[in-house]
Amino acid sequence: MPRRARVDWNAVSAAATNGLILVSTMLALDVPPSTIAFRARKDGGVWWRPLAGLIALVRGGLTPRQRLVAALLVCGERACITGLSACRLYGLARIPEGDEVHVLIPHEERRRSEGFLLVERTTRMPPTPRIRDGIRCASLERALVDGARRMTHVDEVRALLCEAVQRRMTTVPALRSEVEIGSCRGAALVRAVIVELEDGIRSAAEAWWRALVATMDGFPRVHWNADVHLADGSFLACPDGFVDEVALALELHSFAHHADLDAFDATMRRHAEMTAAGLVVVPATPKELRDDPQGVKRKMWAALEQARLRPRPGVVMKPL
User: Fold this and answer.
1) In CATH, what number is assigned to the domain containing residue 226?
2) Does a structural domain hold residue 310?
3) How does pLDDT run across 38-60, given as a tens digit for each residue?
4) Domain count of the chain?
5) Whole-angstrom Cα distance, residue 115 to residue 106?
6) Is 57 helix (H, G, I), strand (E, B) or coil?
7) Structural domain that includes position 19
8) Alpha-carbon gap, residue 296 to 298, rounded angstroms
9) Which of 12, 71, 88, 90 has the greatest CB tally within 10 Å of its CB?
10) What is the distance between the alpha carbons of residues 19 and 58, in angstroms, rounded to a whole number?
């Protein structure tokens, strides 16, 4: 009777990454296929198969990091993480919850999407993948556009792209460049939001206000997030919106700022400083913009009339 081959289980353990190992690696380490099948059986097995060709050496669900590692293991050494998973690696927070891991692989390779794994074949692989927390991923701009292309709600796209720009992690021209050279599939919402960003919009609520202004025939042009300086050149404020013609400021007061006492204090101080400098300020909340747009319009028309009745203060706007 032939002797059963001895398996170096220390070598198997050492070859596993975060408790994950390819079946091909186990076979190369002389683990018999029958042993793999028995230990990874559905009922009573001590291992399990999170993806085809991959073994998890411990039963239970995968952690977020294990999902990233699993995706790269099964997709090969040239693969890299993109989309929302990569955006999380870069530290962005305004991302919808989900377990999906979006992976780029060279167009000539074959690998199917399954479970949490979303595989995208591309002729435009990142030439030099970035390493974030030990994980290969696409550039932030590529990840943002790839993730946003698969979103169906414009406010989610706005939140994602605005956060990255607002935190100065990327620039609007960089996003424009990426969307122009990338896939057209699903890019309509992304392009629309980039147009808003190019106009100075930096949040979903500002985009709502911009859309509202577009319905107000005869209302003067609003400049979004433009710096306003006093006559002596000193910085006054950067209101959310500014009508340069009459020095009228539009200011969003959100619940987030009310919950953050420091941010709320800064908002109130900026409001007071603009008023003291002679600006007419129109405050509004995201809830007002969403639930009572006609009321916001009435406030804006009334404020415009008030601003036109007084001499324009000597403030100077510097567009974004």
Assistant:
1) 3.40.960
2) yes
3) 999 988 899 999 999 999 999 98
4) 3
5) 20
6) coil
7) 9-56
8) 5
9) 71
10) 7
